[in-house]
Design brief:
Strand order of the largest sheet: 3-2-1-4-5-6-7-8
Number of helices: 11
Radius of gyration: 21 Å
Strand content: 5-15%
Largest sheet: 8 strands, mixed
Length: 329
């Protein structure tokens, strides 16, 4: 018996056990808040961009389980259709549809919006979830820096093309998935397209700050319409967004970093909880212009409260997408 105790108390056994227990409880803590209310979304129509993987896919799955009709808007239709079939089987809800949407192409965005409105006469919730992160410098099909183009400009155009049907369906919601990275972002109106200089991290931070400023200005312009607009931080989530992290491409570092990611990052399902909360919580029916994290309101960085910058960004983005929407007619 004493031999067994000595063995268990050996540093070789004891310290790995302690580290394992700490990692387990830390992982559970890092998973964040959960949306636990029961809601019935039967008869409601949703659009989720970037829905074939990660938190987008988990968001669709949860809405599907609650009876909602969901349009999965994705660039890669093979992966989208595969995800759609998995969701239909898991939820036993056939009202899940895959549609092509490339947010780096104005032509694709316009085609998607026109196609959706030819199929549906209502839209209760638009979840602008798709995004790219820390990618090497590249341009969208319309010549914009990729992170700003997909994360902000593409969703700006999509939202405006769907505003008429959102207003018609009111009460309705717009949910913009941003990030804590907005706290490190600045809106460089003199070089919005990063033509003079480019940093992967700075460009991502700018795009995520743009999400919140867009939401802030949009919510003001939609007052009295019955359409709300809110943004959120899903948390640090272990998804495909990390595919452009160069150090994770080094095999030996993968073995060292992956356990940390497992411990400190949310699963995709838990990362989707705040999106689901913002889209479905009945208490948020008349709440607009806020930013959420872990299923509760959270303050934003000082730069995200700058109304002047929000208006200037709005005007500049209007020009970039070729819209004149000042009155949101």
């Amino acid at each position: 018996m004493s031999c067994l105790c000595d063995c268990l108390l050996s540093p070789i056994v004891l310290w790995p056990a302690i580290i394992g227990v700490v990692a387990y409880y830390l992982r559970n803590y890092m998973q964040g808040g959960k949306f636990t209310k029961n809601t019935d979304e039967t008869g409601k129509v949703f659009i989720v961009t970037g829905a074939n993987t990660g938190i987008g896919k988990e968001t669709v799955l949860e809405i599907a389980k609650r009876g909602g009709t969901v349009y999965m808007a994705c660039r890669d239709m093979n992966r989208c259709e595969k995800a759609r079939q998995e969701i239909v089987r898991a939820s036993n809800n056939p009202n899940i549809f895959s549609r092509e949407l490339d947010l780096s192409s104005f032509e694709s965005i316009r085609k998607f919006a026109a196609g959706f409105k030819s199929e549906q006469d209502k839209l209760h919730v638009l979840i602008n979830n798709a995004g790219v992160m820390h990618c090497p410098k590249s341009l969208t099909k319309d010549g914009f820096e990729m992170q700003l183009g997909v994360n902000h400009i593409g969703h700006f155009l999509l939202t405006h093309l769907l505003l008429d049907i959102l207003k018609k369906t009111a009460p309705s919601r717009i949910v913009n998935v941003s990030s804590l990275a907005h706290t490190q972002g600045t809106i460089n109106l003199d070089d919005l397209n990063s033509e003079k200089s480019y940093s992967r991290i700075a460009a991502y931070g700018q795009s995520k700050l743009a999400n919140i400023l867009f939401t802030r200005e949009l919510s003001k312009r939609l007052e009295g319409t019955g359409v709300t607009a809110n943004s959120l931080h899903p948390g640090a989530v272990d998804t495909e967004l990390t595919r452009n992290w160069e150090f994770l491409k080094i095999n030996i570092l993968q073995y060292l970093i992956r356990p940390l990611l497992w411990t400190l990052f949310k699963t995709a399902r838990n990362g989707a909880q705040t999106s689901i909360y913002a889209a479905l919580d009945p208490d948020l029916k008349n709440v607009s212009g806020l930013y959420f994290s872990d299923c509760k309101p959270k303050d934003v960085a000082h730069a995200a409260k700058n109304d002047k910058t929000a208006k200037l960004l709005w005007i500049e983005t209007e020009k970039l997408v070729g819209l004149s929407t000042s009155k949101l007619d």
